[in-house]
Amino acid sequence: MMRAPAARAPNVGGGRPARPLDAQAFVQVVEVWVPDKAVLRHHSGAYGTHQEFARHSVSSTYQRGVGLPGTAWASGRVVVWQDLRHHLVSGQPAQTYGLDAGIAVPIYCGEALTSVLTILCGNRRHAGGCIEVWEVQEETRLVHAGAYYGPLD
Predict the structure, then answer these.
(1) In terms of DSSP H, where are the helices of the chain?
(2) Cα separation of 61 and 135, whole Å?
């Protein structure tokens, strides 16, 4: 019996095509934002079933301190937003897209920001997993700095 190939996540921005994302996966969207003068511009992303979100996202920009990527840029640290219900994502309430939480990771080369990686998670009631953020303190100690948890049983 022949099986139809699995649908692929859109490959927005080039590179190798992304593997398919499961609609019930903990991580639903991953994006890369790059600095362009005073804003972060969309560079690439994997969206799975979130095609409408992808269409809005590719034309979005974020100023320093604005939105999840802009907040990570301004703080220079990993940012965890536990509840996206009251945040706009690509101009729409995040819950419109079924996204509950977001994590943004600023990436540096020396002192220069090269990109911000955003990871957007789906409904925590439907997918198990976790993302934890740990920070180095006093060069010898790790301190828990934030997390987002789905069911872990």
Answers:
(1) 51-57, 67-75
(2) 28
- Round to whole Å and give the CA distance between 143 and 103: 17
Write out the two tokens for 107: 């990436």
Task: Dump pLDDT digits (tens) for 77-106.
Answer: 999 998 887 776 655 667 777 888 899 999
d(CA 106, CA 117): 6
CA atoms within 13 A on the CB side of 112: 6
Please say whether the beta carbons of 148 and 121 come within 8 A.
Answer: yes
Say how far residue 138 (Cα) sits from the centre of its chain.
Answer: 29
CB atoms within 10 A of CB 69: 31
pTM of the model: 0.78
